[in-house]
Design brief:
The complex is a heterodimer of chains A (278) and B (186). Chain A is an alpha/beta fold. Chain A has helices at 6-22, 26-38, 42-58, 88-102, 145-148, 161-176, 194-203, 216-230; strands at residues 2-5, 71-79, 82-85, 125-131, 136-143, 152-156, 184-192, 245-255, 260-267, 273-277. Chain B is 25% helix and 26% strand. Chain B is globular, with a radius of gyration of 16 Å. The model of chain B has no long low-confidence stretch (mean pLDDT 95). Classes of the chains: A alpha/beta (278), B alpha/beta (186). Chains A and B meet through helix 3 of A and helix 5 and helix 6 of B.
Chain lengths: 278, 186
Amino acid sequence: MRIIPAEDVTRAVAEAAVDINYHLGPEMVEAIERARADEPSPVARDVLGQVLENARIAAEGTFPLCQDTGLMVAFVELGEQARVEGGLNAAVTEGVRRGTEEGYLRRTVCDPFSRENSGDNTPAVIHVDLVPGDGLAIDLLAKGGGSENMSRVAMLTPAAGLDGVVELAVETAGAGGVNACPPLLLGVGVGGDLEMAAKLAKKTLARPIGRPADDERLAGLEAEILERVNELGIGPAGLGGRTTALAVHAAALPCHIASLPVAVVLQCHAHRHRRIEL
Amino acid sequence: MTAPRTISLTTPLSPDAVADLEAGDRVLLSGVVYAARDTAHKRLIDLLERGEEPPIPLDGQAIYYAGPSPARPGQVIGSAGPTTSGRMDPYTPALLAAGVRATIGKGRRSPEVRRAIAEHNAVYLGVIGGVAALVARSVVACEVVAFDELGPEAIRRLEFDRLPAFVINDAHGRDLYEEATAREIA
C-alpha cells in the first residue's frame, strides 16, 4: 500500500486552482487564434482578439481570466493500492480553500436556500473512481456558473437514437449559447444513467481540446454536432460569426434497455483545467 | 459587413443620449455605475415593494450585473466581467420603472424586459463575457456601498473609464443577438 501525505495533495490542488485561473491553456489559445483567422466578421474577430488579450493580461498574474473563478470540480482517480493519509476529501477540500486564499479567487459557493456564502469556495465537487495501481490523478476544473446554467440532462427514448443526441446538443447550444460565453466547448455524455451521463459529459472537458474520441461512432457524432452548432451563427460573445463552438467531446457507456440518457455540458472560452498526477 | 460605429458615453445618461443609441453600436462607457447581481437585486426589490428607500440612487442610473473577484493589495478591483443578465430579468422591469436607464451584462433578456426597455427609453448594453481581466483595466474606482455582508454579491459603486460594450437592446425594440445570428445564417 502506497501512503500519500495529505499535504502533497493539498499543495498540488491549491497550486492548480490558482494556476488554471490565470493561465489559459496553450491548446485553447491556439484554437481561439485559429478561429480568429477563419472569421469573416470584423466584430467576431474583434471579440476573439479581446479574448486573447484578456488571456495575456491574466497571465501577468494580477487578474484572473474571469471574475467567476469557478466552482472547483475534481475528478479523482485513486489507485486501489494507494491511500491518502489524513483523508482524500479533506486534502482536496483544504487545497481548494488554500488556492482560493492565495490566488485571490472569488468566493463563489453558497447555501442553495439562504444563499449565504461559504466564504472559501468549499465544498468542492469531488468525484472519486478507484483504478488499478498505486497512483493518484486529479483532473481539476474551475467551472463557471454562466455556462453550467445552460447545460442539460435529458432522458431520451431509445427510438431517438443518434439523431436525438445530435438534436439535443444543437438545441442546448442554440438556446443557451449566447449566455454561456461562446466560443464554447461542448461535453456530451451518452448512456449510463441520469447522473453517469452528466459525469461523463463533464469529464470529457478534461480531454485535449478537439482530439476526436477513439470510438468512430463518437468521433462522427462530435464532428456532426460541431458542424451543426457552428451553423447556428451565434458566434463569439453571441454577436454573430462562424465560431460558436471550438470543439465537441463525447463519451458513452452502456445503458438500460429502456433508456437513452444524454447530458450536454456547455463550457465557456475561459476553459480552466489541469491534470495533477502524484 | 461593415464595422459598427463607436460612441463615447458618460453616465448618468441623458434621455436623448439613450434614444440615439442603436442595437449594434459599439460603446465606450465612462462614469459611475452600480454593480449588483442576484441577491442584491432581490433585496432592492423587497425594499421598493415595502416602500423603503433603496441604498443606492436609481433614477437615471446604470446597473452593471457583476460580482468581481477580490482586489489584490494596491489594486482598485479584481477581475470584473459581466454575469448572465437573464437571471435579473424578474427584477428588471421594476427597476426600469424606478428610473434605471441602463443595464449592463451579458446574454439575452426576456421579452418582458425588452418591452420595458422600450417603454422607459432605456438601454441594455452587453460586455463580452469572460474578458474580466480586460474589463478590470477600465475600472478606476470601486467602493462597496450596500450589503457588504454579501461578499461578491454586495453592491459596489464603480467608476469606469471607457469600458468597451455593445448596444444589445435599444430603446426602439431592436435586439442585436437576434439580428447578428439572423445575419450570419442568412
